[in-house]
Design brief:
This protein is α+β, with helices and mostly antiparallel strands and 322 residues long. 29% of the residues lie in helices and 26% in strands. It has 9 helices and 20 strands. Strands 1-4-5-18-9 form a 5-stranded mixed beta sheet. Helix 3 packs across helix 9 and helix 7 packs across helix 9. The chain is globular and about 55 Å long. This is Clavaminate synthase-like protein. GO terms for molecular function: oxidoreductase activity.
């Protein structure tokens, strides 16, 4: 850990993994009880941001644990603002969400019994966030972990086991197809309607915003089919000098299912050929094997590098009264 991160103490927890001497994720806690105050944390983030950025670059993800005085979405927003990262409007994403305060949105609003498969946030569109923050305001009664996995590890394992398939992915990329209703469907994990997807009620504005994403739209009476791609499925991370598994292939193939969408048709190779189901499900197995799933505690903040790390969501049960 950088020596000048004096406000924080590096913490070890049972769920961490170790890759070549680098723990995943890094876990930071306050070094003193008085440091748990939200305003003290935000001041420390502003002061020590270069060191935190370096730590994030090395480890891919940082869990801030023990800041249990972070009680509200507003407290969390202050922490996010303290990092000063550029905000990316949520245009083109699939999940139904609601803005809570400032830069804070609800997590995927699909029913809690539904699993959200592994993905990089908005990997199916050309413009995606570089960083993601997660916050635990209320601990789930059961489940609800956010499993995370290092993207380059997945790439290396897939390349070793399925070199021909990975070569096709690198050559052709992927095409993603999703049918959107007019309004949000909270019963679906991909239930974001076209109005909230493109942040407009005007079809012509939606067309303009889709065009900026290089997305094709095919309008129907009750919604619109969006076609994105071919878009790369593997990227080269220049800052870490390694290839990464950067796509929503497994998420689309195994999870983009609702009344409008058939997941087997949601993603194909960039040349139009279907994906091999056996390899997709084996990739899912690799993702699960390499993932870290840390149970949430009240006040937890998780920061991940969206280029380095995929994430998912396990089903959960809410506490009584929520």
């Amino acid at each position: 850990m950088p020596a000048n991160l004096s406000f924080f103490a590096e913490t070890k927890i049972p769920h961490q993994r170790n890759y070549g001497g680098v723990v995943f994720p890094a876990v930071l806690s306050p070094e003193a009880v008085q440091s748990r105050n939200p305003s003290v944390l935000t001041a420390a983030v502003k002061e020590q941001k270069p060191s935190l950025d370096s730590l994030l670059h090395t480890h891919g993800a940082i869990l801030f644990r023990g800041f249990d005085s972070l009680a509200t979405a507003s407290d969390f927003n202050d922490v996010v603002e303290a990092f000063g990262y550029e905000e990316l409007p949520y245009v083109g994403g699939a999940a139904p969400r609601t803005n809570v305060v400032g830069r804070v949105f609800t997590a995927n609003e699909s029913p809690p019994d539904q699993k959200i498969p592994f993905h990089h946030e908005m990997a199916q569109v050309p413009e995606y966030p570089s960083k993601l923050f997660f916050f635990c305001e209320v601990e789930p009664a059961d489940g609800g972990e956010t499993p995370i996995v290092l993207s380059h590890v997945v790439y290396e394992r897939m390349k070793e086991k399925y070199p021909d398939f990975v070569e096709k992915l690198e050559k052709h990329g992927l095409i993603y197809t999703r049918v959107l209703g007019e309004d949000d469907d909270p019963s679906s994990p991909i239930g974001r309607g076209w109005k909230s997807t493109f942040l407009t009620k005007d079809k012509s504005v939606a067309e303009e915003r889709a065009a900026k994403l290089n997305m094709k739209l095919e309008w129907a009476a009750d919604g619109v089919k969006t076609i994105m791609g071919p878009i790369p499925a593997v990227k080269y991370d220049e800052t870490r000098q390694r290839k990464i598994w950067f796509n929503s292939m497994v998420a689309a193939y195994t999870g983009w299912e609702d009344a409008r969408n058939d997941p087997k048709k949601a993603v194909t190779l960039g040349d139009g050929n279907p994906l091999p189901g056996d390899i997709i499900y084996d990739c899912l197995k690799i993702l699960e094997e390499e993932s870290v799933a840390i149970p949430w505690r009240k006040g937890d903040v998780l920061l991940i590098d969206n280029l380095a790390v995929l994430h998912s969501r396990r089903p959960f049960a809410l506490l009584a009264g929520y």
